Amino acid sequence: MAKTKNKTALIFGITGQDGSYLAEILLKKGYVVHGVVRRASTFNTARINHLYQDPHNKSRKLFLHHGDLADAGTIRKIINKVKPEEVYNLAAQSHVKVSFEIPEYTMDITGNGALRILEALRDFQTETGGKVKFYQASSSEMFGAAPPPQNEKTPFIPQSPYGAAKVFAHNMTNLYRDAYGLFAVSGILFNHESPRRGETFVTRKITRGIARIKAGLDKKLYLGNLDAKRDWGHSPEFCEAMWLMMQQPKPNDFVIGTGETHTVREFVELAFKEAGLGSWKKYVEIDPQYYRPAEVNILVADTRKAKKVLKWQPKTKFKDLVKIMVWNDINEFKVKN
Ligand code: NAP
Ligand code: F7E
């Protein structure tokens, strides 16, 4: 892997699934990495604890700052202090179902949060003479009801407050590129998972549920709509694509996915089989509380542009992703119990 010496990156959302993988990738490439962490009453740095470096270590490469996407003043202060060359906005209220319960908050963080960073960068850009680059974590959820396969030209028909907030942030990112000449890119990423996936997203909920059943802690797993189809990939590979987008000569938007789609039911079936539990039908019950007021029925990425321009290709196959996640959770529960 080519080393990039002494570049400085700032990651909003470093404690999340993608933020933790991106931090690893950038540190390996030789970057100095700064991350923004929310103050919480419990530890929220589990995904990056292995990267933590003692603040007394003079040659450390990872720095954490308290901040929140609701707080424009602190965003501005951190950017001015860190003087980053690359800024990645991965922070969001990222749960689609929850966005129906807290739509206004979702818009404020997932939508306006991106605008707050863009506004701070608009001024910072003048100071640096245009040397700063911005990455926005756009989402396939923006396509919503648009028929598949979806690519960079597909219209956005969002089906959730989260999707609508991401469309706003996406449009603002494009606007700051056009209006102010900011190097601003949006990665329109389809669902991507890993053992670090949040426990309430469906894939991790399934694999964690299976581990709890195997460990004798639960008897049932309660799920919602099993007919929805998703294009599921592996998070670390998708984070590498984020970095590639930022290394292009010109800012541009890219769809990142696998091009393959599977129902939630298929994920469930394969995961129970992999765990050796036999038929999933013995364990899974449908609970309508997990249905959404509006659903995105099918997502399939058309990644021709990313393949051609970024030379990026997904590597992990659906069945291998299921295997990785199932065994990670089974082993984790074995260690704990
Ligand atoms: P995630 O695991 O939910 O991580 C979200 C991150 O945002 C966490 O670090 C979280 O901090 C932080 N955050 C939440 N609210 C914040 C606030 N008010 N101020 C500052 N930080 C805040 O999400 P992910 O799966 O890594 O996804 C990364 C980004 O890509 C998100 O923007 C998501 O919407 C988008 N995306 C994800 C997918 C996917 O399939 N994973 C697909 C397309 C787009 P805490 O750790 O303190 O909660
Ligand atoms: O749901 C169905 C649910 O919550 C996937 C986020 O990363 O990807 C993610 O959003 C499907 C939906 O992900 C349960 O109805 C069934 O059809 O894992 P999910 P999502 O909504 O696709 C996009 C690209 C993002 O950008 C988002 O940030 O699974 N489903 N039963 C269920 N979903 C959940 N969560 N829980 C269930 O019990």
From TrEMBL:
Record field: catalytic activity: GDP-alpha-D-mannose = GDP-4-dehydro-alpha-D-rhamnose + H2O
Repeat among keywords: no
Cofactor(s) needed by this chain: NADP(+)
UniProt xrefs under Gene3D superfamilies: NAD(P)-binding Rossmann-like Domain (3.40.50.720), UDP-galactose 4-epimerase, domain 1 (3.90.25.10)
Purpose of the protein: Catalyzes the conversion of GDP-D-mannose to GDP-4-dehydro-6-deoxy-D-mannose.
EC number, UniProt record: 4.2.1.47
Gene Ontology biological-process annotations: 'de novo' GDP-L-fucose biosynthetic process
Pfam families in the record: GDP_Man_Dehyd (PF16363)
Keyword line: Lyase, NADP
UniProt-listed PANTHER family: GDP-MANNOSE 4,6 DEHYDRATASE, GDP-MANNOSE 4,6-DEHYDRATASE
Any one GO MF annotation of this record: NADP+ binding
Domain NAD(P)-binding: 10-325
Lineage of the species this protein comes from: Bacteria, Candidatus Yanofskyibacteriota
The protein, known as: GDP-mannose 4,6-dehydratase
InterPro entries (alphabetical): GDP_Man_deHydtase (IPR006368), NAD(P)-bd_dom (IPR016040), NAD(P)-bd_dom_sf (IPR036291)
Family stated for the protein in its record: Belongs to the NAD(P)-dependent epimerase/dehydratase family. GDP-mannose 4,6-dehydratase subfamily.
Presence of keyword Thylakoid: no
CDD domains: GDP_MD_SDR_e
Origin species: Candidatus Yanofskybacteria bacterium RIFCSPLOWO2_01_FULL_42_49
